[in-house]
Amino acid sequence: MKTIEEMEIFAKENFIPIARKDFITFLKDLIIKRKYHNILEIGSAIGYTAISLALLDDVYVTTIEHDLQRYQQCMVNITDFSLNSKINAIYDDALKVSLSSKYDVIFIDAAKAKNILFFEKFQNNLEDNGVIIIDNMNLNDFKKVASLKKIAFYENKIFELKEYLNNLKKFKVSYLDIGDGIAFIEKV
User: Fold this and answer.
1) Nearest alpha carbon to residue 126 among 91, 97, 164, 100
2) What phi and psi values does residue 46 have, to the nearest 5 degrees?
3) CA pair distance 121, 111, nearest whole angstrom
4) Predicted pLDDT of residue 42
5) Are 109 and 66 in contact (CB under 8 A)?
6) Structure confidence at residue 103 (pLDDT)
7) What is the number of H-type helices and E-type strands within the chain?
8) Coil/strand/helix, residue 172
9) Under a CB-based contact definition with an 8 Å cutoff, are residues 23 and 182 in contact?
10) CA–CA gap between residue 169 and residue 172 (Å, rounded)
11) Low-confidence residues of the chain: pLDDT under 70
């Protein structure tokens, strides 16, 4: 795929969740305003967010995907956009990946039941002036397709995540109604 629009169509036709356009705009504006350069994304899917960000000047993305098919499509898309030098895509379970780099933004958009584990694992990779963003806090898209049992399970996971985040001492947490709802987490 050679355009962002082609990626959006592919994602829709193949039921692949990607970030909403308003969230991408918010994230790009944040990166430009705060002069951020290094981004870590947990959950690449087909590379939509990573590519959208890497198209910005002087922005580099490390993205992790555990699903082989999605990772392979992500790699094709990165190559199609000629962004191999700006995006480091890793095929693995994010909880098994060890990273020593520091990032301005850590974007968590992966297995919702593991958000606390992802936060705990990667919080030390955050630059002092950086932010961690967790997507899908509202679960609106998920609620359209999931069973009532799954919805109840994931609503409970979001409740547990909010309880956890609200009790953090070293971070300030805001909940913003952008995209499908985000937790916006900054070091204090």
Assistant:
1) 100
2) -100, 10
3) 14
4) 98
5) no
6) 98
7) 7, 7
8) strand
9) yes
10) 8
11) none
pLDDT of residue 77: 97
In 10 A of CB 177, how many CB atoms? 10
182-187: strand order across its sheet: 87-91, 60-65, 38-42, 103-108, 126-135, 182-187, 171-176
- State pTM to two decimals: 0.94
pLDDT at position 15, please? 87
d(CA 89, CA 79): 11
The gap from C-alpha 175 to its chain's centroid, in whole angstroms, comes to: 15
Predicted pLDDT at 148: 87
- CA distance linking residue 82 with residue 86, whole number of Å: 9
C-alpha distance across the termini of the chain, in Å: 41
**CA nearest neighbour of 86 among 125, 130, 47:** 47
Contact assessment for residue 27 and residue 106, using Cβ atoms and an 8 Å cutoff: no
- Per-residue tokens: 36: 């951020």
d(CA 173, CA 186): 7
To which H or E segment does residue 127 belong?
strand 126-135
Cβ neighbours of 38 (radius 10 Å): 18
